[in-house]
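Example record

One chain of 127 residues, shown exactly as stored in the release files.
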Amino acid sequence: MRFSGVDRTLAALACLAGLLGVALSAAAAHIPGADSLKTAAQFLLFHAPAILALIGFGAAGLARPALARAAAGLLVLGLVLFCGDLAVRTWLQHALFPMAAPTGGFALMGGWLVGMLCALVPGRHRA
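Predicted structure tokens for this chain:
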């Protein structure tokens, strides 16, 4: 099993998502009415292991690496837009940019859809 530079970057971003999920969970526990932060934290914590799994599946040859990277990349992009928008709305009282959260939500759904393809399209086995 070998990780490419892209795989390592996506894995590092997944770990960053986990770290930020813990941090936002703590912040939400101490800020009254911070339901948006709680939602962002949950999304970060739920998706971080999925990104790591996708990269691992691709690196192990259990899924096509390009599909796994595409799925993981869409999940990362979706987290940045969706969770970023929720956090900015909470702390700065304005949107990250118009339609950031819905765009992020669609990217997350796209990531899961491509992840489904990873499960259905066999990986290339190395002899």
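Notes: The longest helix spans residues 65-92.
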